[in-house]
Design goal:
The complex is a heterodimer.
Chain A lengths: L1 E9 L14 E8 L4 E6 L5 H9 L4 E8 L12 H10 L1 H4 L12 H14 L14 H7 E4 L11 H6 L14 H13 L15 H15 L3 E5 L7 H18 L2 E5 L3 H7 L2 E6 L2 E6 L6 H12 L2 E6 L2 E6 L5
Parallel strand pairs in A: 3-7, 3-8, 5-6, 6-7
Antiparallel strand pairs in A: 1-2, 1-4, 8-9, 10-11
Helix pairs in contact in A: 7-8
Chain B lengths: L1 H27 L7 H5 L3 H35 L12 H15 L4 H27 L3 H25 L5 H10 L10 H17 L1 H6 L4 H6 L4 H23 L5 H13 L4 H24 L8 H19 L5
Helix pairs in contact in B: 1-3, 1-13, 3-8, 3-11, 3-12, 3-13, 4-5, 4-6, 4-7, 4-11, 5-6, 5-11, 8-11, 12-13, 12-14, 13-14
The chains are: A alpha/beta, B mainly alpha.
């Protein structure tokens, strides 16, 4: 499930009107392949969060951002809605992969029954239509978004916070059932938070809270993941656990993931693509797996001063070139 | 896990027992001495007092406490603030202004005062919601501000009515109304309050899942598929319906709507449905006890807000000192 973004601008209204020319984020175009993780990197205040919020329709924006179901169409012009609708039906099966992953969906019987129900409940994610035109409920089935800071103002057990991820598929008066709880537990276990189900969310550390929110995103299971610094409070081990979990999920279920990362070493090591942003514009796109050390070094130097990238044992490393003292 | 469940069950049972006991004691408390033996002996007079006065009054006190507890719980979630109460967007002051207008301008009977204060409370909240929508697309901060504005308007309207009122009669009844009392409750005035409160409580109980989403950041809730502005208006509307339904019959009952949910949350450290019920039960117990004190402590009737505050404030202080951890 890829994403095509074209001539996208986002910002805030000034005197009641949105002016794309003077917006915070201007004229951005890129596309994301299904099954890949893309990092959005740039200095503080360059518009990364604004771009993500704009893609979700949380703030005024112009341009197109379209969820597509077919890899070939990623390079083409945006599809017409009619075209994409037929595709939705044809490619129905791809959407919920038949193999269950060992991490989140532990039980096959549960999973099958649950899939059937979800499929009956949810109209398929709206391929071909602009994300910003969707109703909140349909948008929540298409996009899973983690804001920079997520806050819950009342005391609540961790498991109930994770269960909020099922909100987009529940009926008005429906309560999360046994299947949902089972999945929420599995998701917590997958992020290393097993045993915390009945702890109060408020008493957790910031890092643990972030892991819980990640678990909520896993159960929400939307085709597109937009994550705003999901690792900001995590330690070294958990940071890698987060990226590993995301990579596994994204690869196994052909999800598309765009996340804001400040740790460029982590981004180079774990992501398939890096979007480099500077003062509201996209200045470069690099692919750590295929680009040469020189290309990576020069692209990243534009962003953050003189740096050098080198490869060793199949990993990318980045360091700042400092003049000798 | 079992610990939390046990604790919840224990607290709910205790609150239920206390409320039940208070209910029965309240039935037997008052100017006219009612005992079970007297009722069983088929005393005509005793039965009349029981049916037309004592039972409606006790029942309404219980319902009022429960309803205000639930309404306060909802307000505190919607405003993400442990100090929010139904007064914050002008329900009580609107109802006050409505009642005062009825007393002063219409020289009205009890049912008309009820109708006017109910309308006043609802109108105040509708105005606050409308202003917030016009000013800031329904954002929470603009809702708080427009609540303050509406509150100020209603207060000044009330003051004008008080200024114009005849100090002997009208001013006294306005003042008495703003302190709340169950003394005027009869069977005939019960249905309106009961229907409004029961409908609101039921709806809020069913919508509890969506209610919790309102405690998230606005963007986060929206990205989980919740129509935030609509939900917020619905939750506030229902909580207002409950509060206005009760307050229009009894006059303003202070503090119960703030204290009960706060206490329930400190006790359970949770916001799920059992906490909502516990909040209601604490409110019931508090208001029933306060009403008993109000009618037995002196020869006349004490306004019920006085014993509520006298009982509630130390209770809250004790909870805060003992309860320890802050929940925000």
């Amino acid at each position: 499930m890829g994403l095509i973004v074209k001539h996208f601008s986002a910002g805030y209204e000034k005197r009641g009107a949105f002016d794309a020319g003077n917006a915070i984020v201007r004229n951005i175009s890129f596309s994301l392949q299904p099954g890949t993780i893309t990092a959005l990197a740039g200095s503080n205040g360059c518009g990364k969060t604004t771009l993500l919020k704009g893609l979700c329709g949380l703030i005024p924006a112009s341009g197109t951002c379209i969820l597509v179901n077919d890899e070939n169409s990623l390079s083409d012009e945006p599809q017409t809605p009619a075209h994409s609708q037929t595709q939705t039906h044809i490619n129905d099966g791809i959407l919920r992969p038949k193999q269950t992953t060992q991490s989140v969906h532990s039980n096959h019987a549960f999973q099958n029954a649950f899939e059937k129900k979800q499929r009956a409940d949810a109209a398929m994610p709206p391929y071909g239509s602009d994300l910003r035109t969707l109703s909140p409920r349909r948008l929540a089935r298409a996009v899973s978004y983690i804001p920079q800071r997520s806050g819950i103002a009342v005391p609540l057990p961790v498991i109930d916070v994770v269960l909020m991820g099922f909100e987009p598929v529940l009926h008005l008066l429906e309560q999360p059932g046994k299947l949902h709880r089972e999945q929420a537990r599995a998701a917590l276990a997958a992020v290393g938070m097993a045993g915390y189900e009945n702890h109060s969310f408020q008493t957790l550390s910031e890092g643990q809270k972030q892991l819980c929110i990640l678990a909520r995103t896993l159960v929400q299971d939307a085709p597109l993941l937009l994550l705003d610094e999901p690792d900001s409070a995590l330690d070294f081990t958990n940071r890698h656990l987060l990226l590993d979990t995301l990579r596994r999920t994204v690869a196994e279920r052909q999800r598309t993931c765009l996340l804001v990362l400040h740790d460029l070493n982590l981004a180079l090591d774990c992501c398939d693509q890096l979007l480099l942003m500077e003062s509201g514009q996209l200045t470069g796109i690099v692919h750590p797996r295929s680009d040469s050390e020189e290309t990576l070094s020069s692209s990243l130097s534009v962003l953050c001063g003189p740096v050098r990238v080198f490869r060793r044992d199949g990993h990318c490393f980045l360091y700042q070139i400092k003049p000798c003292p | 896990m079992t610990n939390q469940r046990k604790k919840t069950a224990l607290l709910l049972t205790a609150a239920l027992l206390f409320t039940g006991a208070a209910f029965f004691v309240s039935l037997c408390t008052g100017r006219y001495p009612l005992t079970i033996r007297l009722l069983l002996s088929g005393n005509e007079n005793a039965w009349r007092v029981f049916r037309t006065l004592r039972l409606p009054r006790t029942f309404l006190a219980m319902l009022a406490g429960f309803a205000l507890g639930i309404a306060g719980f909802v307000f505190q979630i919607v405003f993400k603030n442990p100090l929010a109460s139904p007064d914050i967007i002008g329900v009580s002051s609107g109802a006050c202004a409505g009642a005062a207008a009825a007393i002063l301008l219409l020289h009205a009977s009890a049912p008309a005062i009820t109708a006017c204060s109910f309308a006043g409370g609802l109108a105040a909240v509708c105005l606050a919601l409308g202003l917030a929508r016009a000013a800031g697309r329904g954002r929470l901060s603009s809702l708080v501000l427009s609540g303050i504005v509406v509150n100020a308007f209603a207060q000044s309207a009330l003051m004008i009515f008080k200024y114009l009122a005849d100090p002997e009669k009208e001013l006294a009844s306005i003042e008495y109304w703003t302190m709340g009392s169950f003394s005027g409750v009869t069977a005939s005035r019960l249905p309106s309050a009961c229907i409004a409160a029961a409908a609101g409580i039921l709806a809020l109980f069913l919508l509890h899942r969506q209610l919790l989403l309102l405690s998230l950041d606005e963007d986060e809730a929206r990205m989980l598929g919740a129509p935030v502005a609509l939900l917020r208006a619905a939750a506030l509307g229902l909580a207002t319906l409950i509060t206005a339904g009760i307050v229009s019959v009894t006059g303003v009952i202070s503090f119960a709507g703030l204290l009960a949910p706060h206490g329930a949350r400190i006790l359970l450290r949770d916001s799920r449905r059992p906490t909502m019920v516990l909040s209601g039960l604490l409110g019931s117990g508090l208001v029933l006890t306060a009403d008993m004190i109000a009618r037995s402590v002196s020869a006349g009737e004490l306004p019920v807000s006085i014993p509520i505050s006298l009982l509630g404030a130390p209770f809250l202080l004790w909870l805060v000192l003992k309860g320890g951890r802050k929940w925000d």
